[in-house]
Amino acid sequence: MHIGMDHFARPDDSLAIAQREGSLQRNFQGYSSHAQCDLIGLGVSAISRIDDVYAQNPGDLVRYEAALDQGQLATVRGIRLSDDDLIRRDVIERLMCDMGIDLAAVSQRWNIDTARYFAPALEHLKSAEQDGLLTRNGDQLNATPMGRLLIRHLAMAFDAHLPQQTGQRYSKIV
């Protein structure tokens, strides 16, 4: 069965079970049936995630080895997520894992008015709804079978950092 973003699993696989139970997780390493946990990246250009902080190791072996030889962490950059980043990460992850979003649940979980908070994203998604990629029934947004294949495109509507990016940093949506 289709889990999402070109990932498939047998119906009895832990990923398929987690998706049915609403506990599927996704991060930069892919889908997981494990609860959110800290990830320590080891190696050149590895990314770590600890709570609301992301950190990346250097992209070249010489710098990475030099830091380790000096007994230092091999971290060259990092970022602490804002409250807005955390809310958006949650919504994007739920959409990519559940293939839908319960806006009322998001409102309750984050103590926000999702209709107002995500007004630009919801407006942007109207064209996806018209194209048959998404359905909206009250507070429920759900990807259609075709929309599941383009779930990354739907999730991009909630990413506040994308409009600010210049040049292509990620794969294009076909």
From TrEMBL:
InterPro entries: Coproporphyrinogen-III_oxidase (IPR034505), HemN_C (IPR010723), rSAM_sf (IPR058240). It comes from the Bacteria. The keyword Ribosomal protein does not apply. Pfam families: HemN_C (PF06969). Residues 81-150 form the HemN C-terminal domain. The keyword Ligase does not apply. Keywords: Oxidoreductase. This is Oxygen-independent coproporphyrinogen III oxidase. It comes from Vreelandella olivaria. The lineage of its organism: Bacteria, Pseudomonadati, Pseudomonadota, Gammaproteobacteria, Oceanospirillales.
